[in-house]
Design brief:
The protein has 262 residues and is α/β, with parallel strands linked by helices. It has an 8-stranded mixed beta sheet, sandwiched between helices. Strand 5, helix 3 and strand 6 form a beta-alpha-beta unit.
Length: 262
């Protein structure tokens, strides 16, 4: 177990591999732990960090720190303490919100973002995320998946207030405006059967700026990295390997993950 002390509180993280840094940010259900297969896939060429945000996993539980602005402050402090410079972010659900907001605030730091199950509109969020316990949400979203016992066991460590405050933020801010403000290349990944963050519509990709790209996992729900780890991780590694500044639109969803012939 690795940890830092940030503003007198414990922040838990884990790290694998060597190379350019990649930070993994978890969703509302679980913690750093479900990123292990993706971290292992990335660690061949990258130094992969997975961070427990405030209120989740083994990081501190303090209701005054659960605003999105505090999670952004935590991520910035984490990068500073570990001496991490320009970085790639892979965020899921809540982590995707934090990753995109951080990229907006610190464009000089974020080289690229992979945002999984990103809710751009409040109506995408199922009310259960706001009203149910972390244990109940884990049962709802993970019960049909194989080999997720460790992820389910992590759910009770989450503070329900951390979920509530982040969902409340979604109801108050128009995150679709990020599409016009972000400078970093961004790959959006969405499981079309996600019951927690519902799919918007099939015309959404036509509205994206040139440095954004959307790939749908047709038969996946909220956890495509667990439901289809082989394809998810191959896509992720392809995205991380793109030259800095290159649009992810050169990537395509195929049986074999290959770049499009230009």
């Amino acid at each position: 177990m690795s940890a830092i002390i940030f503003e007198d509180e414990i922040v838990h993280y884990e790290v694998l591999g060597r190379g350019r840094p990649v930070i993994y940010l978890h969703s509302w259900v679980g913690s750093w732990r479900y990123w292990i297969p993706s971290m292992q896939a990335a660690s061949v060429s990258y130094r992969a960090y997975a961070l427990d945000m405030w209120g989740f996993g083994d990081s501190a539980k303090n209701t005054t720190r659960y605003l999105i602005s505090q999670q952004l402050r935590l991520l910035n402090g984490f990068l500073y303490q570990l001496g991490i410079g320009r970085v790639a972010l892979v965020g899921h659900g809540l982590g995707a919100i934090v990753a995109l907001k951080f990229a907006e605030q610190y464009p000089q730091v974020v080289d690229r973002v992979m945002a999984v199950e990103m809710p751009f509109r409040p109506e995408q969020i199922d009310p259960r995320l706001k009203h149910e316990t972390p244990e109940s949400l884990a049962s709802w979203l993970l019960s049909t998946l194989p080999e997720v016992d460790a992820t389910v066991l992590e759910a009770p460590k989450s503070d329900r207030d951390a979920l509530y405050q982040s969902i409340q933020f979604l109801e108050e801010e128009n995150l679709s405006e990020l599409l016009t403000r972000l400078q970093s290349p961004c790959l959006l990944v969405h499981g079309k059967s996600d019951p927690a963050v519902k799919w918007i519509d099939d015309d959404f990709s036509a509205t994206l700026p040139p440095h954004f790209h959307l790939i749908l996992f047709e038969e996946c729900g909220h956890f495509p990295m667990l439901e289809n780890p082989s394809q998810f991780n191959r896509l992720m590694v392809d995205f991380l390997a793109l030259p800095s500044g290159e649009s992810p639109r050169v990537l395509a969803l195929k049986e074999e993950w290959k770049r499009r012939v230009r």
